[in-house]
Design brief:
The chain is about 40% helix and about 15% strand. Strands 1-5-6-4-3 form a five-stranded mixed sheet.
Length: about 375
């Protein structure tokens, strides 16, 4: 399971943007609404139904393509208005993220889980059952993996959600896949052996458990605040961050070595996975080439006056996710038309009513430009 801490100051309501995500093939939503022949044929209600049907067909086509390529199953809901609960962008993100591991590796992982449970590895996009309890559980739950059914659930917020957070993100997808990998390795490598070898690298620092304070964690030992809670989450977070954070601005090689040049505990964990994974995945050459980018990915990305660095840039190179943090837009007094998605930084560039420029990232992090790029 993966959670994301949510600031108490963020009281967000959401705006759906799935219909304007870039489409790799076929017509976009805008195309449906600019086709003269369609205007002549359909009445207003039928016209919208035709648009929804076209969008749903694109989502379904992409779903089938990913299933064939990776040997997995994918499911999503249909909303009351007849529209798919996810946009094409969510599936493009899933496709690209799984591609870091390669189709051959995902197929082998899916084969393993079919042999263990009778079910192929599955990805299920569902509305989050936890969205109204984020303040109680200390963070919004983004995803989960059920080893009894081999189903990865990726939680997306409903339109009435009180917080902005979504599981249709690269880190969440890879984190949940990592749980499936870890449990496979428990079987093949030995559960006690795997845990013992891993926990030795913590140099005696204990895990806190999910209900204790994880702030002030040792960044040379743990890749994220969430990884401090348990071995399972530590393994999944290291795996996910190593595979996803490989572009400029996403790198974290500065904590893989201590200032004296020695391997840090976190560096040892990354190195351990680099040695372990090829032992149990048959066709892993390209996967490990992708993994090794963790050692050289630039830590900073310069954009205007900003030095961007961190996991909040995880959407670099992706289409924007379905939901925008509308509360920040309101707080900044921004006209909703005055924004654009910049794939190069994985965030939105927004202008307020006074002409000030901001970069806003999925999850709510915002920066003010003093020098417009």
């Amino acid at each position: 399971m993966r959670t994301k801490k949510v600031s108490a100051l963020v009281l967000a309501f959401l705006i759906a943007l799935c219909f304007v995500l870039p489409i790799q093939s076929g017509a976009s939503y805008a195309t449906f609404f600019s086709t003269p022949s369609a205007v002549q044929v359909f009445g207003r209600r039928d016209y919208r139904a035709a648009a929804r049907a076209g969008l749903n067909a694109q989502v379904e086509e992409k779903r089938a393509e990913i299933e064939r390529r990776f040997g997995v199953h994918i499911r999503y809901d249909i909303d009351q208005n007849g529209t798919a609960s996810i946009g094409i962008g969510a599936l493009i993100t899933l496709d690209t993220t799984l591609g870091h591991l390669t189709p051959a590796v995902i197929r082998q992982l899916s084969d393993y889980w079919e042999g263990r449970t009778g079910n192929r590895l599955s990805f299920s996009f569902v509305y989050s059952p936890f969205q109204n309890y984020a303040s109680i559980i200390g963070g919004e739950v983004l995803g989960s993996f059920n080893p009894h059914t081999a189903v990865i659930q990726l939680y997306i917020p409903a339109f009435a959600a009180d917080v902005f957070i979504s599981g249709e993100s690269p880190l969440t997808i890879m984190h949940e896949v990592a749980h499936a990998v870890q449990l496979m390795l428990d079987d093949l490598h030995g559960a006690e052996r795997l845990r013992a070898e891993w926990e030795t690298m913590n140099n005696g620092i204990p895990y806190t458990g999910p209900d204790n304070n994880t702030s002030g964690f040792d960044r040379f030992t743990f890749v994220s605040q969430y990884s401090v809670t348990s071995f399972e989450e530590d393994f999944a977070e290291v795996f996910a961050h190593a595979f996803v954070r490989h572009s400029a601005g996403q790198g974290f090689s500065n904590v893989l070595w201590r200032p004296n040049g020695e391997f840090s505990p976190l560096g040892r964990k990354v190195d351990y996975l680099e040695s372990l994974l090829p032992l149990y995945f048959n066709d892993s050459e390209q996967m490990m080439a992708n993994y090794r980018r963790v050692w050289t990915a630039p830590i900073f990305l310069q954009y205007g006056n900003l030095n961007l660095s961190g996991d909040f840039t995880q959407y670099i190179g992706f289409s924007h996710p379905r939901f925008v943090l509308r509360s920040l837009v309101d707080m900044l007094e921004i006209e909703m038309e005055a924004y654009r998605w910049v794939s190069h930084i994985g965030g939105w560039i927004i202008s307020d009513t006074n002409g000030a420029q901001f970069a806003i990232f999925p999850g709510g992090i915002a920066f003010h430009f003093t020098d417009q790029p």
